[in-house]
């Protein structure tokens, strides 16, 4: 498909939906990228205490609130339900839409040949565009532009919106001008903070049914590091490539450690009680 649509003269019947919490770092840029093109912006906030809501309101967004549950997935369904348009553009508060997308979206709406559209992401970590190391923008596509009636919201982390059976899909071929600009980790400390929160949530998902052994876990994390850093050429990104490869290994190690705790019925409260009992025995 070639996008030839003439210059836009009015806002498109698209609802941009963004879930937020303490999201004032990039939100002004995210909203600046959509405000002149989409007819509606819905910001679903989890009671931020920074400038998030003020920024959203300054761009004319409809601000709605959801209880703070630690991550966005459970609130996606509620946020999408607040939108009045059939076409939804689902964004995070650190994702900027290049101007070239809007002509593509306009043509897709006009031709009505698809219900769900996939397109590429360019991730930035530690100030570096991640073009290799498993983050190739031409390979990393996401389902973020869709008809509201074509999807179901699951509330599951990393897959909160899924396509209904039988709907029509289209993938926009990779083009640097048609790739969402995603600004992620600022530092190793920032990565570890987010990773700690998300691995706790992910460890509670009912997908870890296989037996976990030291060999299996070690094989996976080492294999993934070799794959990301060497086979997928993360080394070409310099220190940032090495850092993110190490941190992704640490992320997996953290996740499996938490799964092992749960499978063995351990938690901080039980361990504290046991430690105190040991200390009391020492003092006798």
Q: Give the full name of the CATH homologous superfamily of the largest domain.
A: Spore Coat Polysaccharide Biosynthesis Protein SpsA, Chain A
Number of discrete domains: 2
* Element-by-element helix/strand order: EHEHEHEEHEEEEEEEHHHH
SS summary, helix count: 8
Give the number of DSSP strands.
12
CA distance, first residue to last residue: 79 Å
Protein model, in words:
38% of the residues lie in helices and 21% in strands. By secondary structure, it is of the alpha/beta class. It folds into 2 domains: 12-183, Alpha-Beta Complex (Spore Coat Polysaccharide Biosynthesis Protein SpsA, Chain A); 188-270, no CATH class. The strands form 2 sheets. Strands 1, 2, 3, 4, 5, 6, 7, 8, 11 and 12 form a 10-stranded mixed β-sheet that branches. Strands 9-10 form a two-stranded antiparallel sheet. Strand 9 and strand 10 form a beta hairpin. The N and C termini lie far apart (79 Å). Residues 1-7 have low confidence and may be disordered.
Task: Please render the helix and strand layout as text.
Elements: E1 12-20, H1 27-32, E2 38-45, H2 52-58, E3 62-65, H3 73-81, E4 87-91, E5 95-96, H4 101-111, E6 116-125, E7 128-129, E8 141-147, E9 151-153, E10 161-163, E11 169-171, E12 179-183, H5 188-202, H6 214-231, H7 238-263, H8 268-283
Parallel strand pairs: 1-2, 1-4, 2-3, 6-11, 6-12
Antiparallel strand pairs: 4-8, 5-12, 6-7, 6-8, 9-10
